[in-house]
Write a structure and sequence with these properties.
This protein is α/β, with parallel strands linked by helices. Helices cover 29% and strands 22% of the residues. It is globular, with a radius of gyration of 16 Å.
Length: 201
Protein backbone atom coordinates (compact mmCIF):
# COMPACT_ATOMS: atom_id res chain seq x y z
CA UNK A 1 0.00 0.00 0.00
CA UNK A 2 1.15 3.53 -0.61
CA UNK A 3 1.51 6.51 1.63
CA UNK A 4 -1.28 8.52 0.02
CA UNK A 5 -3.49 10.79 2.07
CA UNK A 6 -7.23 10.40 1.62
CA UNK A 7 -9.18 13.59 2.12
CA UNK A 8 -12.15 13.01 4.45
CA UNK A 9 -14.65 14.78 2.20
CA UNK A 10 -14.26 11.98 -0.33
CA UNK A 11 -15.91 9.68 2.19
CA UNK A 12 -18.57 12.06 3.51
CA UNK A 13 -19.20 14.72 0.85
CA UNK A 14 -20.84 17.94 1.96
CA UNK A 15 -19.82 17.67 5.61
CA UNK A 16 -18.10 20.57 7.36
CA UNK A 17 -14.40 20.23 8.01
CA UNK A 18 -13.45 18.67 11.35
CA UNK A 19 -10.28 18.97 13.38
CA UNK A 20 -8.93 15.45 12.92
CA UNK A 21 -7.59 13.56 15.93
CA UNK A 22 -3.98 12.43 15.50
CA UNK A 23 -4.03 8.66 16.07
CA UNK A 24 -0.99 6.39 15.69
CA UNK A 25 -1.44 2.67 15.01
CA UNK A 26 1.42 0.62 16.45
CA UNK A 27 2.20 -3.03 17.17
CA UNK A 28 4.58 -5.79 16.16
CA UNK A 29 4.94 -6.72 12.51
CA UNK A 30 2.16 -9.01 11.20
CA UNK A 31 -0.25 -8.01 13.99
CA UNK A 32 -2.72 -6.62 11.45
CA UNK A 33 -2.18 -2.84 11.74
CA UNK A 34 -2.52 -2.05 8.03
CA UNK A 35 -5.50 -4.40 7.72
CA UNK A 36 -7.16 -2.36 10.49
CA UNK A 37 -6.41 0.92 8.70
CA UNK A 38 -7.80 -0.12 5.33
CA UNK A 39 -10.82 -1.88 6.81
CA UNK A 40 -11.67 1.49 8.40
CA UNK A 41 -10.88 3.40 5.21
CA UNK A 42 -12.69 1.25 2.64
CA UNK A 43 -14.99 -0.86 4.86
CA UNK A 44 -13.66 -3.98 3.16
CA UNK A 45 -10.70 -6.34 3.45
CA UNK A 46 -7.62 -5.13 1.57
CA UNK A 47 -4.73 -7.53 1.04
CA UNK A 48 -1.64 -5.81 2.43
CA UNK A 49 2.14 -6.22 2.43
CA UNK A 50 4.47 -5.51 5.38
CA UNK A 51 4.74 -1.75 5.92
CA UNK A 52 8.31 -0.53 5.43
CA UNK A 53 7.57 3.03 6.49
CA UNK A 54 4.08 4.26 7.20
CA UNK A 55 0.59 4.52 5.74
CA UNK A 56 -1.66 7.45 6.53
CA UNK A 57 -5.36 8.09 6.03
CA UNK A 58 -7.85 10.74 7.12
CA UNK A 59 -11.15 9.08 7.92
CA UNK A 60 -14.47 10.36 9.27
CA UNK A 61 -16.57 7.95 11.28
CA UNK A 62 -20.02 8.10 12.82
CA UNK A 63 -19.74 7.31 16.52
CA UNK A 64 -22.43 6.07 18.87
CA UNK A 65 -26.19 5.93 18.53
CA UNK A 66 -26.49 9.73 18.37
CA UNK A 67 -24.63 9.78 15.08
CA UNK A 68 -21.83 12.11 16.18
CA UNK A 69 -19.15 12.56 13.55
CA UNK A 70 -15.46 12.30 14.41
CA UNK A 71 -12.47 12.81 12.14
CA UNK A 72 -9.35 10.73 12.64
CA UNK A 73 -5.95 11.15 11.02
CA UNK A 74 -4.43 7.68 11.31
CA UNK A 75 -0.73 6.94 11.02
CA UNK A 76 0.01 3.22 10.58
CA UNK A 77 3.71 2.72 11.32
CA UNK A 78 5.74 -0.36 10.40
CA UNK A 79 6.25 -2.80 13.28
CA UNK A 80 9.47 -4.51 12.24
CA UNK A 81 12.15 -4.34 14.91
CA UNK A 82 14.42 -2.01 12.92
CA UNK A 83 11.52 0.45 12.46
CA UNK A 84 10.38 0.62 16.09
CA UNK A 85 12.88 3.32 17.11
CA UNK A 86 10.98 5.57 14.67
CA UNK A 87 7.68 5.15 16.54
CA UNK A 88 8.58 7.98 18.88
CA UNK A 89 8.66 10.57 16.10
CA UNK A 90 5.11 9.59 15.04
CA UNK A 91 3.60 9.50 18.54
CA UNK A 92 4.79 12.99 19.42
CA UNK A 93 1.64 15.15 19.79
CA UNK A 94 -0.63 12.11 19.33
CA UNK A 95 -4.16 12.37 20.72
CA UNK A 96 -4.41 8.59 21.06
CA UNK A 97 -2.60 5.34 20.34
CA UNK A 98 -3.97 2.12 18.86
CA UNK A 99 -1.76 -0.84 19.76
CA UNK A 100 -2.64 -3.91 17.68
CA UNK A 101 -1.86 -7.34 19.13
CA UNK A 102 -2.01 -10.69 17.35
CA UNK A 103 -4.13 -12.70 19.81
CA UNK A 104 -2.77 -15.98 18.42
CA UNK A 105 0.95 -15.14 18.58
CA UNK A 106 1.63 -16.28 22.14
CA UNK A 107 5.40 -16.56 21.56
CA UNK A 108 5.73 -12.82 20.91
CA UNK A 109 3.38 -11.56 23.60
CA UNK A 110 6.27 -10.64 25.89
CA UNK A 111 7.85 -8.68 23.02
CA UNK A 112 4.54 -6.90 22.40
CA UNK A 113 4.27 -6.06 26.11
CA UNK A 114 7.79 -4.60 26.14
CA UNK A 115 7.12 -2.36 23.15
CA UNK A 116 3.73 -1.21 24.47
CA UNK A 117 5.14 -0.24 27.86
CA UNK A 118 8.18 1.40 26.28
CA UNK A 119 6.14 3.72 24.04
CA UNK A 120 3.55 4.65 26.70
CA UNK A 121 6.23 5.52 29.25
CA UNK A 122 7.89 8.14 27.07
CA UNK A 123 7.54 11.55 28.68
CA UNK A 124 5.66 13.01 25.71
CA UNK A 125 3.17 10.09 25.71
CA UNK A 126 2.27 10.16 29.39
CA UNK A 127 -1.49 10.34 29.72
CA UNK A 128 -2.18 9.61 26.04
CA UNK A 129 -5.13 7.15 25.85
CA UNK A 130 -4.39 3.69 24.45
CA UNK A 131 -6.75 1.37 22.62
CA UNK A 132 -5.31 -2.15 22.67
CA UNK A 133 -6.87 -4.07 19.78
CA UNK A 134 -6.83 -7.82 20.41
CA UNK A 135 -6.86 -8.77 16.74
CA UNK A 136 -7.67 -12.20 15.26
CA UNK A 137 -10.17 -13.03 18.01
CA UNK A 138 -12.14 -14.99 15.41
CA UNK A 139 -9.50 -17.74 15.42
CA UNK A 140 -9.96 -20.75 17.68
CA UNK A 141 -6.45 -20.48 19.15
CA UNK A 142 -6.86 -16.80 20.10
CA UNK A 143 -6.03 -16.00 23.72
CA UNK A 144 -8.99 -14.81 25.82
CA UNK A 145 -9.06 -11.15 26.87
CA UNK A 146 -8.28 -11.89 30.51
CA UNK A 147 -5.11 -13.74 29.53
CA UNK A 148 -4.08 -10.98 27.12
CA UNK A 149 -4.60 -8.36 29.81
CA UNK A 150 -2.34 -10.36 32.14
CA UNK A 151 0.39 -11.11 29.55
CA UNK A 152 0.52 -7.49 28.39
CA UNK A 153 0.49 -6.29 32.02
CA UNK A 154 -2.07 -3.62 31.14
CA UNK A 155 -2.74 -2.87 34.80
CA UNK A 156 0.91 -1.85 35.09
CA UNK A 157 0.59 0.93 32.52
CA UNK A 158 -0.08 3.25 35.42
CA UNK A 159 -2.95 5.48 36.45
CA UNK A 160 -1.70 8.20 34.10
CA UNK A 161 -2.45 6.08 30.99
CA UNK A 162 -6.13 5.37 30.26
CA UNK A 163 -6.55 2.18 28.23
CA UNK A 164 -9.18 -0.12 26.81
CA UNK A 165 -8.74 -3.70 25.58
CA UNK A 166 -11.01 -4.44 22.63
CA UNK A 167 -11.54 -7.86 20.99
CA UNK A 168 -11.41 -7.46 17.22
CA UNK A 169 -11.16 -9.11 13.83
CA UNK A 170 -9.64 -6.65 11.37
CA UNK A 171 -10.49 -8.77 8.32
CA UNK A 172 -14.25 -8.41 8.84
CA UNK A 173 -14.02 -5.21 10.89
CA UNK A 174 -15.56 -6.65 14.04
CA UNK A 175 -14.80 -4.63 17.17
CA UNK A 176 -13.12 -1.71 15.38
CA UNK A 177 -16.05 0.69 15.66
CA UNK A 178 -16.59 -0.11 19.34
CA UNK A 179 -12.90 0.27 20.05
CA UNK A 180 -12.65 3.66 18.37
CA UNK A 181 -15.72 4.87 20.23
CA UNK A 182 -14.00 3.98 23.50
CA UNK A 183 -10.77 5.67 22.37
CA UNK A 184 -12.67 8.80 21.31
CA UNK A 185 -14.37 8.85 24.72
CA UNK A 186 -11.03 8.58 26.53
CA UNK A 187 -9.55 11.39 24.41
CA UNK A 188 -12.55 13.64 25.05
CA UNK A 189 -12.35 12.99 28.80
CA UNK A 190 -8.62 13.77 28.85
CA UNK A 191 -9.13 17.01 26.91
CA UNK A 192 -11.86 18.09 29.32
CA UNK A 193 -9.59 17.42 32.31
CA UNK A 194 -6.76 19.38 30.70
CA UNK A 195 -9.08 22.35 30.06
CA UNK A 196 -10.22 22.28 33.70
CA UNK A 197 -6.59 22.21 34.90
CA UNK A 198 -5.77 25.25 32.77
CA UNK A 199 -8.70 27.16 34.25
CA UNK A 200 -7.48 26.43 37.78
CA UNK A 201 -4.15 27.99 36.96
Amino acid sequence: MGNGLSEPHTIFPGLPSFQALHIVILGLDCAGKTTVLYRLRFNEFVNTVPTKGFNTEKIKLVLGTKGRMAAFHFWDVGGQEKLRPLWRSYTRCADGLVFVVDSVDTERMEEAKTELHKITRLQENLGVPVLVLANKQDLRSALPLGELERLLALNELGSHTPWHLQPACAIIGEGLQEGLERLHGMISKRRKMMRQQKKKR
